[in-house]
Amino acid sequence: MRIISGKYKGRRITAPKKLPVRPTTDMAKEALFNIINNQYYFDEIAVLDLFAGTGNISYEFASRGTNQIVGVDQDYGCIKFINKTAEEFDMNIQTIKSDVFKFLSKTQQKHSIIFADPPYAFDLDKFSQIPELVFQNQLLDDDGILILEHSKHTDLSTLTNFSYSKSYGGNVFSFFKKEISES
Prior knowledge:
Blueprint: H1 26-37, E1 46-50, H2 56-63, E2 68-73, H3 76-89, E3 93-97, H4 100-106, E4 111-116, H5 124-136, E5 140-151, E6 162-168, E7 171-177
Parallel strand pairs: 1-2, 1-4, 2-3, 4-5
Antiparallel strand pairs: 5-7, 6-7
């Protein structure tokens, strides 16, 4: 995997083969960041990277100037790799080794962007728990978004707060936003 843009543009990062991960492809990541780039100033946002895996998404945010990044993964090897890489590149990425669902139930910290890349094998019920917990616990800023990565075989459009989705090959990014009540 490589960093697409920013301070570390073009740098390659090689994760150990034994990590239980499926990193977001460079093509899909580039398309995702083109969407995000049109909505946010990277140096002004707080990002939560759920099922962080190799840290691929966190590194991209850090390279573009984001200083408030939290990566959550339950695998110790993933957390160790993210910490090692963040230290090498002098990136400000805080890691938390935790089950994502337990973490979302307990945290109170708000974020501008929450990115989740859970296992593609999750069933719809498991996927639905992510936006439920995010919105129930009010973990997004008012103009924040939750982005869920999943396979093209999973349809999340029926979930609460679903806004839209974009497909890139076999990857799909579904975007969820807070519903603003009109007064």
